[in-house]
Amino acid sequence: REMPFMPIDGEHVISSKQALVLPKLPETMIVVGSGAIGSEFAYFYAALGVKVTIVEYLPQIMPLEDEEVAKTMERSFRKLKATILTSTTVKSVKVNAEGKCDVEVEGKKGTETLVADIVLSAVGIKSNIEGIGLEELGIKTERDKVIVDKQYRTNVPGIYAIGDIVPGPALAHVASAEALCCVNAICGVHSEPVDYTTIPSCVFTSPEVASVGMTEQQVKEKGIDYKVGRFPFTASGKATAAGDRDGFVKLIFDQNDKLLGAHLVGANVTEMLAEPTLAKSLGATVQQIAHTIHAHPTMNEGVMEAAEVALGAAIHV
Question: Which sequence positions are flagged as catalytic?
Answer without folding.
Answer: 296
